Amino acid sequence: MTSSACEIWGDLSGVRSLFPVLNRTVHKTPLVYLDNAATTPRPQPVIDAVLRYEETFPANVHRGVHTLSGEATDAYENARRRIAAFFGAETLVFTRGATEAINLVANTWASDHLQAGDEILISALEHHANIVPWQMLCERQGCVLRVVDVDDNGELCMQAVEAAMTDRTRLIAITGVSNAIGTLTPINDICAAAKSRGIPSLVDGAQMVPHMPVDVTAIGCDFFVFSGHKMYAPAGIGGLLARTAILEDMSPWQGGGDMIRTVTMERSTWNDVPWKFEAGTPNIGGAIGLGAAVDWLKTLGMEPIATREAALLSDMIGRLQSIDRVHLVGQPSQRAGSVSFVIDGMHPADVGAMLDRHGIAIRAGHHCAQPILERLGYTATIRIAPAFYNTDAEMDVTEQAIRRIIDVFG
Ligand code: PMP
After folding, report:
1. Which domains does the chain possess?
2. Pocket of ligand 1, candidates 94, 102, 122, 127: which has the most ligand atoms within 8 Å of its Cβ, to mutate?
3. Half-sphere exposure of residue 97, counting CA atoms within 13 Å on the CB side?
4. Is residue 127 lining ligand 1, measured as CB closer than 6 Å?
5. pTM over cut 0.70
6. Could you report the per-residue pLDDT of 48-58, keeping only the tens digit for each?
């Protein structure tokens, strides 16, 4: 274990004891969970906050006059304030996650502002969630999707981004961290370059938020999207962070309850931001759970988390590089969250299934980012995504399991 982890979290057993799922065995072996880029386990403070809502005030928000509804509304709106503050944001719109937040921007701001021939700039690293909504918009409105390529290491170079901006670029939508190969992109520089040209920017922060301190004001983006389940909160909750003025200027997207001020059979008027974008009963327990996750991450500290995870990742990369027939996919100079690799002569899905027999949970496949794998010459990889609570012993177990699988089946 790194000294920083020792100093801050003792021997890690304290922090690990907060994750009930880590007590599980899989195939009669203690679970080694290394699929944190897909979703993170939920710690007890998050589970307790959700349970408290479900058990003591499981009411709808904003509408009720009774005590329970008031408590639910307070908890929901309080969570919104704490989460927005955690990210240095003016306003948080709750969504189901990063995917829904990107679709919200595509269907409101971008639909309103982009015309035929206008360009949306994304990178070759993007998750499908930051590709498909823009393709659909281009189909509808005749816009053009331009893609900044990466180099052969999977690195996104600032010069390439700048070269791809044209006088028709109307939006830059880029991931902060690649979920497939771990590349950390120069997101602050990209947003600054966009701003200096008057181009709005959207950051897909789904893989940033669990791994590093994030201040959206410092990043300088116009839109920032994220998912709760990748930062220790329940699935089905996440958000869009933006300045209030931009959100006020946007048309609503989904219609229904809560997003309206008045409704007649002839026409409706809209609620204030952010509720204008939250049609229907929201994921109240999820929002409260996300608030608890943010509180908990604050007590742990995002800086120590980042330090510990950088050490874990570089340790795992060293181990993988020492194994014959293992090839890393993507060797960016700066990374966070995960490392992808293949093994000569073995299909990633088979390796994933065999690791599961050892109780080790990893992801194998295209990671919902087919274009970047294709760009680097693959259709699937094995992805190991450790998080700060993973131990050095687990890294050892994983390395030994990979070696054994290669020896026996390779
Ligand atoms: N962007 C990135 C970079 C992701 O890793 C993910 C989830 N794998 C998403 C977007 C979509 O997140 P969600 O499915 O939670 O909406």
Report:
1. 3-42+301-409 (3.90.1150.10), 47-298 (3.40.640.10)
2. 127
3. 16
4. yes
5. yes
6. 999 999 999 99
